[in-house]
Every structure is written in C-alpha cells, then in structure tokens.
C-alpha cells in the first residue's frame, strides 16, 4: 500500500477490530466529511473469487461514515482519545446503493463520505451519509446510508 502522511488511526473512532475492520487509515476528517483508505487483502472475510464483495463495500462505507459521528463519542473536549468508551453502532437503513464494480485483491480503495443530516440525543446519534468509493480514480460504489450509534453504559 502507498505511504500516506498525516493519517489518523481509525481505531480511535470505531470499536471494530480485525477481522471486521474494513478501513486502514483516515486520510482527512472533519465534522462534515471523511476520506479513508483500505487495502483489499486475500484473507479478508469479504473476499470472494479474488474480489471484495458488495457486502464488504457496504461495511467499508459504514465504517468510513461512522468515524464522523464517532468523534463525539471517542474524543474529549480537548480532542484527546478516550480509552474507556464502548459504543454500539449499526446500519439502520440503506436508502440507495449502486455497485458499479468490485475491487480485486491487492488493490486499494479510497472512500469519501459527507454528512447529510444528524440527530443527537443524550443517549444516541442517528445520521444520514452520502458515500462514494473509488479504486484508481474509477468509481466503484455510491450509497446513502443511515447509521445509529450509541454509547454503552
């Protein structure tokens, strides 16, 4: 995989760990947008017939998107990582999805997400995100997804 500068460890924003971690690094992150990178390896649980399956693209998109909202759970007011936080999150709905092509093992995908809407309570967050995934500048995937994220107490 290409070397990137100023990356952010996705593990600071998600509870996922291998083998279910579908993002390697966050390249850019704000309260409205995120860009991530992920290398497709042959031992990935979503690889079928030497390609990253549709469900893998959806999970990559969801994990990319959740890092925007995850900031409010995993970072304190000084932007320091909280160590003792546990969250539960899931895709609560997929409004639309287009899979144009599946990336092959050995390639790297770049996923971009933009926050469309967000509703926060004291207990949970619900958001809608627009997401696109590319491989070598070729569009592979587009989706509009809803996520539900809640801190375990």
From TrEMBL:
A Pfam family recorded for this sequence: ApeP-like
Cited SUPFAM superfamilies: Thioesterase/thiol ester dehydrase-isomerase
Protein name: Uncharacterized protein
UniProt superkingdom: Bacteria
